[in-house]
């Protein structure tokens, strides 16, 4: 539990992997009291999901046997005392466990029930296994990422799981929570990674509809087709990123690159983009990445050094804003966004399964904790 605009909001997270835990972490970063429900068997078997799993930071953990009648009842009693429940199981799983939306809303009509899946709760693929790369493939987004003549390039699992999944789940939950405060009625939020990833591409679909985007890789303004929106290798084998779109920024880019007095084609002369790219590439190969960074940063040329994840944590811009602070003995990305009146904070400590079972249930007014522990309905690490 921390400070932030969501202080006072209680979230029950049914433990999972990937986008669900990240969404719950974001809510915790914003001040919500997130109680992660781990499997009781994980505690009994000595499993650990703490350590460096930063998506579990800022939460508390209790362990419950979801397959037992008494464990199910514990979850429903938690729901009565909470504002939000998040789950990321396949469609129908929580219903079979007796903790689906109908069960939970019957106990707490104001509850926001957030569901995180890849394919959504309905449709021909709803019950099919999948991962980020497949979800973004079916939206067309993966097809669009890569260079002309090359294969699609996988953008780690940031685009689908976390951008198309977690962020849309959080957006939906917050909107539903706001509406619930006004109407007194909760609702179910179905956040599918496919839906979110498709929605993220709205801007590009507008270009496509307007005839200013080709439905193929590496030939458009923002997909490395344009030589002034690309990455270039430097003399030391590193890279600089160029995004000089607007004419005034492009002019500054040419000036700092040392080509402003050269005979270059017009910026939007597509037929001569290959020749322009060759000129830019040759210029960048004359200095190291860090030497070019000294030339371009800061400036309005819209050029930046391509940093490794380790380097990014040490970059002066990031250190000045504490983008990667030391939390719980590890360098971690800081909570975002930032607020002027209720700053979000986190202790950064990833929770261990069942570590707070007894304390949380006691705090929430459960008077039968010892009996629940003895019966095995809950477990304490």
From TrEMBL:
In this chain, the stretch annotated as Disordered covers 328-354
* Record keywords, A-Z: Isomerase
Domain of life, per lineage: Bacteria
- InterPro entries hit by this protein: CoA-transferase_III, CoA-Trfase_fam_III, CoA-Trfase_III_dom3_sf, CoA-Trfase_III_dom_1_sf
Stored Pfam families: CoA_transf_3
Coiled-coil regions listed: none
What EC numbers are recorded for this enzyme? 5.1.99.4
Task: Report a single Gene Ontology molecular function.
Answer: alpha-methylacyl-CoA racemase activity
First-level EC class: isomerase
Q: Which Gene3D superfamilies does this one have?
A: Crotonobetainyl-coa:carnitine coa-transferase, domain 1, formyl-coa transferase, domain 3
Annotated PANTHER family: ALPHA-METHYLACYL-COA RACEMASE (PTHR48228:SF5), SUCCINYL-COA--D-CITRAMALATE COA-TRANSFERASE (PTHR48228)
Q: What is this protein called?
A: Alpha-methylacyl-CoA racemase
- State the organism named in the record: Actinomadura luteofluorescens
